[in-house]
């Protein structure tokens, strides 16, 4: 983790402008074509959600703005951020979810193994991951092909990016899902979201065998 030098940081004026707003978060929803990766990963029993979670986690680690967080009056940049995602609680009714967190790896096969092995915790329950902010939060709405969405945030100083994936559909000859990205404007601009989405699309256009 490094501390950003606010005296030399080009985006320092934007940081100072947006950090004090009452509602500094904004969301963008875009379609993502994922057929190449998802279809090729099926032979390895890797789910479509796991593929997209891998693509999002990898992209967030490649675009530095998604690794930045507030620390008091400073801005810090983590070397690596890790996925924390909503998953069905074992034994619970349909739609009742918890949260699972695991360490990121750039190997798709190992990423999927870690995801499947991660314990799913009850929301609000004491958990060592509750105090971490070197995370990205991911969820899914597999029942809806939504066109817009906003996420719950803890307050204007909450800088952890949120992602939600929608229903996978066959469109334009390929497999597509809606992706909502919500961020803190003091750290992430539309340009950075564009970089992230482009990276996600490039990963999703890569056969699974090239990512294992």
What are the main properties of this structure?
alpha+beta, 5 helices, 212 residues, eight-stranded mixed beta sheet, globular, single chain
Strand-helix topology:
Elements: E1 2-3, H1 12-19, E2 25-33, H2 35-41, H3 48-62, E3 68-71, E4 74-77, E5 82-88, E6 97-101, H4 108-117, E7 120-121, E8 135-140, E9 162-165, E10 169-171, E11 174-184, H5 190-204
Parallel strand pairs: 5-8, 8-9
Antiparallel strand pairs: 1-4, 2-11, 3-4, 5-6, 6-7, 9-11, 10-11
Could you walk me through the main structural features you see in this protein, from its secondary elements to its overall organization?
There is one protein chain. This protein is an alpha+beta fold and 212 residues long. The protein has one domain (23-205): 2-Layer Sandwich (Chloramphenicol Acetyltransferase). Helices cover 26% and strands 27% of the residues. The protein has 5 helices and 11 strands; from the N terminus they run βαβααββββαβββββα. It has helices spanning 12-19, 35-41, 48-62, 108-117, 190-204, and strands at residues 2-3, 25-33, 68-71, 74-77, 82-88, 97-101, 120-121, 135-140, 162-165, 169-171, 174-184. The strands form 2 sheets. Strands 2, 5, 6, 7, 8, 9, 10 and 11 form an 8-stranded mixed beta sheet that branches. Strands 1-4-3 form a 3-stranded antiparallel beta sheet, with no helix packed on it. Strand 10 (169-171) and strand 11 (174-184) form a beta hairpin. Helix 3 (48-62) packs across helix 5 (190-204). The longest helix has 15 residues, at 48-62. The protein is globular. The chain starts with a strand and ends in an 8-residue tail after the last helix. The mean pLDDT is 95.
């Amino acid at each position: 983790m490094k501390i950003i030098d606010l005296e030399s940081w080009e985006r320092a004026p934007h940081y100072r402008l947006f950090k004090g707003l009452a509602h500094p978060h904004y969301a963008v929803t875009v379609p993502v074509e994922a057929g190449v990766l998802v279809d090729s990963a099926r032979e390895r029993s890797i789910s479509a959600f796991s593929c997209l979670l891998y693509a999002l986690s990898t992209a967030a680690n490649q675009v530095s703005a998604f690794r930045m967080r507030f620390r008091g009056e400073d801005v810090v940049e983590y070397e690596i951020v890790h996925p924390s995602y909503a998953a069905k609680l074992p034994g619970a009714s349909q739609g009742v979810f918890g949260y699972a967190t695991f360490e990121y790896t750039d190997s798709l096969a190992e990423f999927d193994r870690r995801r499947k092995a991660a314990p799913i915790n009850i929301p609000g329950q004491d958990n060592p991951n509750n105090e971490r902010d070197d995370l990205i939060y991911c969820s899914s709405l597999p029942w809806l092909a939504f066109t817009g969405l906003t996420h719950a945030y803890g307050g204007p100083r909450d800088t952890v990016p949120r992602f939600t994936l929608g229903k996978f559909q066959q469109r334009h000859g390929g497999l597509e899902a809606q992706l909502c990205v919500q961020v803190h404007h003091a750290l992430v601009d539309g340009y950075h979201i564009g970089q992230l989405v482009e990276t996600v699309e490039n990963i999703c256009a890569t056969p699974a065998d090239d990512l294992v």
